Every structure is written in structure tokens, then in C-alpha cells.
Queue: 2 jobs
Job 1
Amino acid sequence: MPLLKSWVASANSANHPFPLNNLPYGVFSTGEDEPRCGVAIGDMILDMAAAEAEGLIALTDYPLFDVPYWNDLMEEGPAVWAALRERLTALLAKGSKEQEAVEPLLVPIAESTLHMPLVVSEYTDFYAGRQHAQNMGAILRGSPDLPANWLHIPIGYNGRASSVVVSGTPIHRPNGQTKAPDAEMPSFGPSKRLDIELEMGAVVGTGSEFGQPITVDEADAMIFGYVLLNDWSARDIQGWEYQPLGPFQGKAFGTSISPWIVTAAALEPFRAPTPPREKELLPYLKGSKDGLYDIELEVLMQPEGADRASVIARTNYSRMYYSAAEQLCHHAIGGCAMNAGDLLGSGTISGPERSEFGSLMELSWAGREPFTLETGETRGFIEDGDTLTLRGNARGDGYTIGFGDCLGQILPAKAWG
Ligand code: MN
């Protein structure tokens, strides 16, 4: 499908992240206004609450968009999602008869504040990047061999919805308990090995029943859309606490997501297969569709006061071993109910080359081999004041599907006690 032309001129450039083909869903406010739903088109946001109040969008007998989250639309299910996308495309297409009515409802993104686009119901993070899992094994255990279950199970842990925040929210370096290998006792204080994880987040739009298993194809249809996700990680806290039950405080202090939910519908032309299976998956984990997407990803780092950000990694979401649909199926297979607004982190996305590694732990090989930024500074892990940014783009025929930056600045640890 080529670029769809819009009467919003800025949306018609091949490199703009928000063409008519995209139509990502966010929550915005201007000045003292209450945050409400908005759709990005070019440099503008269509005020969905206003469009609904004007009668330009009427999908249901009750309002859906004068709220600071997209969960109400998610609850309506795939038929209404598709109807909304069709209606928005008609309203914003070049030659639309309704241009005059819609034009006053556009707000410049540059004059808006973006908020969390959804209420995160629950948050689960996975470990589905093979290169990442091998790198972590090599760094932590001296061997890149995968855990015995890795090729059979999309490994995950239950994270905290309460600490998922929108791009731009500063993150304080966490305090926590750590123990150096040669120390007799653990100690308490600010993490010294603060890291990122480059991930995609899948947003569940349709729930599943408690006690009811689902198939991979059903799971695929339940996914509403995707965001960029930075699973901030305190490696020293994580390293001391993680056995035998997995990550806890090393992850719970913050997870950042990009401000726009890019719909699964917008990403449909970019579907990509999972890699060949080294071990055949059990039948319940097999679906009929390509579950990954061809999305170019990059990570940038900018020290406080530096005049520019340096790209420190570039990779692609299609590097993953398990798709979000496979992860969602596995999550629900024992009867766990999944809900609209659930967020599934993909796991760190790392490609085979060092330039494709999606965490500083890998890029600096646990700090043993620091890397150099364009400004000449070196880094092993994150220092106070550093800003980390994730970017994602799917490249179509004359258009780009972008996510908007997922960034966060690290502030010094808070005093305690
Ligand atoms: Mn993670």
C-alpha cells in the first residue's frame, strides 16, 4: 500500500512518522484542559473528544473519547476498532467532504502535552530475544548456552503496572540492595549499574475469560497495538535478587513507553516471520500468521549538557524469537484471564552484531568494555543526567510508520531515611 494522502499537508512526507497510514492513538492536553484522546496526523492531533461532541465520530450510543485513556475503545472490540480506523481515514483523507468541519479540531503536537495513552491494567515482561539471552548467559555465567527451557517457553515475569510511565517522565536512580561477589555482606544504596532494555510493548485490547485457554491466532486478534518500551534495569540489584524467582526491585522502579499506541492495523503491512525453530514448538504455541513486524529500532544516549545525542544501537523488532501473540497465548494457556490494557514487554531486542545490542550491559559487556559517544565521553552504564531515547520506524512504500520518541532522563537517587 502506498502513502495515503491527507489534507493535513505535513502528513504527506515520506519520512514523517504520522501519515494517514498510521493514525496512532494518544492522550493529550493543552494549557489547563483536561487530558483526552487524540489521534496524530502529521504535525497535528485530532481532538477526539471534540470530534465526538461535534457528531463527526459516532461509533456507539455513549461517548468513548472524552477520557484520558484508550481502554474504553479497546473494550469495544475489533469490529469497532476497524470502524474507527475507516472513519478517521475518511475524515482526514485528501478530498474529504468534512475537511471544513474537522480542521478546527486539530491541535499542533508542538503545543500539546502528551500523557499515558492507556491505563495499564497489568504489565508482564518477557525474555524473548535470543541474542540477548545468549549475551546475558555469556556475561553472567560464562556461557552463551540458553537455559534448557528457553527454546520451548516464552519466559516472562509479572512486572508492575504502577511504575509504567509515559515518555518524558524523569526516572530517579533507584536505591536498593546489592552485593559485590567478594563482599561478605550486602549493602544498600543507589544502583551503580543502571541500564536500559530496548523492547516493544504489545497492548492487549480484548480480554480472555478466566479459566479459558486461547490459541495463538486468537491472541493475535486480541492485540490492539504496540508501543516502544524501555524496561529500565538496575543490574546490580537484579544480579543479587533474581535467584530463584526472577527480577523484582531491579525492574520495579520504572518502565517507560512511547506516547502513541500504533495500532496492529497500521502495522499489518509490516508483518515478519519468527526465525526458524531450532526445536519444534509444542502445538499450542503454533499460529498461522507471521507474528513479528519489520520495525527499525534505535537507541540514543545524550549526557546532560551535551550538544547532541549519539546513536548507540540499531536493530529490528523482527530479530525476536517469540512473537507477542505467542507470548499472549502462553500467558493465558493455563487459564490466566487477560484484560484490555494489559501490557506485554517483548524482552530486550538485540541483533547478532555488537552495534545491534539493546542494552548497555551488552554494549559495554558488563562495563568491562566501555563505549565512546560522539561527544567523546565514555560509558559503561548510565550516569546521572543522561537521557536515553528509543526510536522505532516501519518503512513502507513512500511512507513511514513512527512511534514517537520513548525517552527518559535519569535523575540522582532520592535520599531516604
Ligand atoms: Mn525486560
Job 2
Amino acid sequence: MTLASLTTADWHARAASVRYETGHFIDGKHVDSVAKGRFTVVNPATGNALCEASAGTGADIDLAVASAKRTVASRVWSRMAPRDRMAILAKYATLIEANAERFALLDTLCMGKPISDMVNIDVPSAAKNFAYFSELVDKIDGVVTATAKDAFHYILREPLGVVGCIVPWNYPLLMAAWKVAPALAAGNSVVLKPAEQSPLSALLMAELFIEAGAPPGVFNVVNGLGEAAGAALALHMDVAKVAFTGSTEIGKQMLIYAGQSNMKRVALECGGKTPQIFLADMPDMDTAVTYAINGIFGNMGEVCNAGSRLLIDKPIAKEFIERFIAKGKSMYRAGDPLDPATNLGPMVTASHQARVLSYITRGKSEGARLEFGGSAPELPGAYVNPTLFTGVNNQMTIAREEIFGPVAAAIEIDGVEQALAVANDSIYGLAAAVWTRDLNVAHKTVRDLEAGIIWVNCFDHGDMTQPFGGYKQSGQGRDKCLESLLSYTQTKSAWINLG
Ligand code: NAD
């Protein structure tokens, strides 16, 4: 039976018996916290407690980092023959796919993502991510430089050592994969701190890495709250780099931690307020409207690059909005995340639901027009209905702050120059899109938009070769792509005197 053929009842039956661990994974074993603390993980679709997970503290981080450090010192991973490391990572990618059902259930139960999204997007993307980086293991080359005849100079590219990965809850498996895969492929050892809302899939990831044939201690997981376990990892003197995905506020904190400890490298993938520019000459309005709807309501709007600002050219604004309302009002429907037909799950927690609803209240009080949504449906979980505001200007709070929910803000613009000015008037710069038939305008817009990822006549397209990361306060690292792999290495220059 394939996962695609499972019914809601099948998924519920599987959810009732899914096997998972709730502690940490250190030195190749599932372990409890030193201090025995626990925190409650709540299923946001029901509001019921799912489990009690181990609340890691500095003592657990110390054990995990020490375990990783031992593998760095023994070089059991970094000096393994590259083809052997490749084989382990390639096998690991297949194990992720083979365990798709468990991964899908664990993340859906913790954070409410529709099970179909897990099966069709998160799990295959995570597996592809490991497969891509596995293929790069023996392509990390050094160089020999041109020198005068009395010297021979070569540059080695070496791993950094212990890498700490701190990730959010919106794509728990996939965001972890984006950090862990290049770090491991480059020969580093890892300590991963998942978000406290979604602690379970990371433990399965670490367990399967051993099953793939990797040595214990190379990939460790410590669960716990950000200000305890996360801070201890980011402040640790033996961690060479922190790779962080999360909010801009905590991203800034990571830079402070680095300065307060050992000047560790910091890579940041943070928030966004992505503008989608729809110009009057766009190729096909229906397609663009569909992308606009998916771009903000997909994954409940809990997406760093969610297309939350719709910048619509005046001549087409009325028609575009009418079509958006006609289709967008009903395209995403709140429902049981374990129902394969559901495409809108709950917000990750009740407090996040309250936060999103408070932004909606703010939008109304600042004078934006609520076209649809704006409320929570009559369901037990932390749901928010898909919401569209029109009549928004770029100074309103709903146009400036990252809501991280299914809330679209439509702003009318007068031509491409004004669109660019509005698009760039943001502290964020993760992604942007432009829809136009005019090649010159498209290329000019690509140049002038201040964002790390630009889509033309599409949204959210890409593959593993695409650098994913932001300009401005959206961060300063790049995930996926070759550049990401190299960011987990450092160069060593060897100057040999032949004189
Ligand atoms: P968050 O910043 O609250 O938490 C992210 C991680 O940091 C969690 O593991 C958390 O436990 C940890 N953390 C929190 N406080 C900490 C502290 N004081 N010290 C150390 N660690 C701490 O973010 P979130 O709410 O989990 O995720 C949502 C955010 O993530 C959004 O802003 C979203 O845009 C961003 N995000 C960005 C990308 C990207 O690629 N740019 C991708 C996904 C999510």
C-alpha cells in the first residue's frame, strides 16, 4: 500500500501506534536529560498533549558537544574515505524516504502540517537534500596556486569541527536537513537543537544515521527550550559554527552569543516579508492568481518566504483581486491534518494563533479592508482561516511585520518603479517575485530587487542548486547549493619553501 492511498482512518490508526522517542540522541544512543526536566508537546490540531519531551540544559549540550568533539579528534568521519562517506549519506537519503510514514506522522502531529504536504513535499525534499550533498562529498577540492619558482603553495579545504544547528518548527525535518546535510557532507560533526514545538523527527533522523552505517557521535540531537538548550549550544566554546534558521530577533541573538563566546561562525536564515509584483502585462492572470494564493496560504502561511505582500498594478488591480477572492476564499480549507484532502492545518500553537489573529485586528484598526477570513474556524485546534486584506499601504503593520500565518496584504502600485520602491521598503530581503511579459522589465527588476531569491513568472520554484537565503535582515547564509557546502569548510594554506 502506498502512502498516497492511505485514508484518514488509516492515518489515524497509524498515528495511534507510531513509534517515537522523546529524549536526546547522544553518542549513538537515545538518552534522557541530565536534570530530568521535561516539557509538554501539544498537538495543535486538537489542543491535546502529545508527549513530554526532554528539556535539555547546558549539561546535555556539554555531553553532546563532547561526543561530537571526540569524533572530530579521532577523524573517524572527516578522514573516512570520501567514497565511503558518500555511500553512507546516499544510503541515509534512501532511509529517509523509506521512513516517510513515520516522519510524516511525527511532524504532522507536532506542528499540524497537512499529512499530504509531509508526504509530497517535506519528506522527498529532505531525502533529495541528503542525496544532493552526498554526491558532492568527493568534489570538495583544494587548489595549487601560481607561485615563483622557490615556493609551492596549495590550499586545503577542511571541515570546521563541531557544528551546532538550531532550527524552527515550520518544516522540522526539512529545515534540519538543509543544515545537517552540508555540515556532514563536508566532514563535520553535528549537534542539532530542534524547535521545542517539534522535537520528534530530529531524533528519528539521528537514529537512522547510525542505521546508515555512520559512527556514533557524529550526529547528535539535544531537545529543549531555545533560551536553555539553544543558548548553551550557541555559546559553547567547542562549537565552531552555528547554523541557525528562525526569527530575525533570535538570529541577532546568535551573533551576540558568538561574540560572547568563541567568535564562532554564524549562518542565519531568518524572517521575510516577500513581495510579489504583478504588473499589468503579466502573461496569464489566472496562473498568477493561483500562485499568489498558494504563495501565502500554503503551509498555513508559516513559510519564511511566504508571498505575504501582493503588489498589484493599478490597471489590473480590480480584476486581480476579484479573481483572488473568487478562488482564494475556498481553495484552502481548515481541516484535520491527518485527512489527506486537508490543505490547511492549524497554526503551530494556540499562542501563535492568538498572535496571527492580533495582526488581523491590527490590520482592521489601521484601516485595511478585510475581504475574507480574519477569524478562527469552529474547530478545536489553533486554526486561522485564510485571510485577504486590500487597501493596504506599505506603512501598515500587516505590510511591515512578518505575521507567519495565512494573511495576504494587497497593495496597489502604479507601475514598476513604484513597485520596486515599495518592495524594497522592508527590513527583510529573503525573496521576491515579478510577473511581466516584458523581458527588459523582468531583468531590470531582478537587478533592482533587494532579495536573495527572485522568481520571474513563477513563485517558490527551485531545486537543490538554488542558493536559498536572504539579503538585509533575512539573514546572511545560503542553504542548499554548492555555496552552502563550502560554508561548512575552512581553507588552510600550505606554503612550502623550495629555495
Ligand atoms: P525562533 O527564532 O523562535 O526559534 C528558532 C529556533 O531557535 C528554535 O529551535 C528555538 O528553540 C531556538 N531559540 C529560540 N530562542 C533562543 C535563544 N534565546 N537562544 C538560542 N536558541 C533559541 O523561530 P520559530 O518561531 O521557531 O520559526 C519561525 C521563524 O523562522 C520565522 O521568522 C521564519 O521566517 C523563520 N524561518 C526562516 C527560514 C529561512 O530559510 N530564511 C526558513 C524557515 C523559517
